[in-house]
Task: inverse folding
């Protein structure tokens, strides 16, 4: 069974306000009264620009938070997440037209294999925070506008492997739990965590979700194979007709439009025209 390190499972569990608020409290120490989910599709500004759908974009009273689940090693993932985070900030700035009114932007990365992206030892670190700093004074600048937080999920996963889960944050252990059985174990006695564990089980038996996961896994394998053959450029150019055929099959299986956009590169308008 898939657990919360699967981004599709994660997004479906944390699309509710109650679970989102708990996630922000446990990872960012934010106690917020209300949260709202925004569109996760980033605007495309150039014809040859690849579309990107973020995992979650959350608005609180004062912050805009991009949550990303990074569960597989990709060489460019670390810089790619950073660049899309910058694009999210830029997009929101265009809406306000006023630098002083731009809310604080936080990217929360729940990352497995985090050590592979960094040149220093982080194996015993639970959380890493990155800011813009002045080179001479080493003082943080723009702290009220910008922050990246990485939760080192391998730290919590190692606790499960070593059976040393006592005295650690149970919610973060729940996020890192490698099996449903471990999720059940750590969630006992906590109403919301028990609810999350039950929802994960339910999603694993939802035909639409399991089909979406299977499609994503097949797409990932195919993309990695094509990359290893050195024809990534050809993939990006692609065949329009092939994208259309894939979209038609996904529509037939009642898959969400956002998912079809993510895996075909077609626009929402193009997909609507196929219905």
Result:
């Amino acid at each position: 069974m898939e657990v919360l390190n699967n981004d599709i499972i994660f997004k479906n569990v944390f699309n509710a306000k109650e679970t989102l608020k708990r996630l922000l409290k446990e990872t960012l120490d934010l106690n917020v009264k209300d949260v709202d989910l925004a569109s996760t599709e980033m605007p495309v500004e150039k014809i040859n620009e690849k579309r990107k759908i973020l995992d979650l974009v959350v608005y609180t009273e004062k912050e805009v938070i991009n949550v990303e689940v990074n569960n597989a090693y990709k060489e460019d993932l670390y810089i790619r997440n950073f660049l899309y985070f910058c694009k999210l900030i830029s997009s929101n700035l265009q809406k306000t037209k006023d630098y002083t009114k731009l809310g604080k932007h936080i990217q929360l990365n729940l990352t497995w294999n985090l050590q592979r992206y960094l040149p220093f030892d982080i194996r015993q670190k639970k959380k890493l925070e990155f800011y813009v700093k002045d080179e001479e004074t080493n003082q943080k600048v723009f702290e009220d506008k910008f922050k990246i937080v990485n939760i080192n999920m391998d730290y919590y996963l190692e606790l499960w492997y070593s059976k040393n889960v006592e005295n650690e944050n149970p919610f973060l252990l729940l996020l890192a739990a490698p099996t449903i059985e471990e999720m059940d174990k750590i969630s006992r006695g906590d109403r919301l965590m028990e609810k999350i564990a039950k929802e994960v089980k339910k999603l694993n038996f939802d035909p639409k979700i399991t089909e979406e996961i299977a499609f994503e896994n097949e797409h990932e394998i195919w993309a990695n194979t094509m990359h290893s053959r050195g024809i990534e450029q050809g993939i990006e150019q692609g065949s329009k007709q092939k994208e259309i055929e894939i979209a038609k099959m996904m529509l037939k299986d009642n898959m969400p439009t956002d998912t079809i956009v993510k895996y075909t590169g077609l626009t929402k308008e193009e997909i609507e025209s196929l219905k």
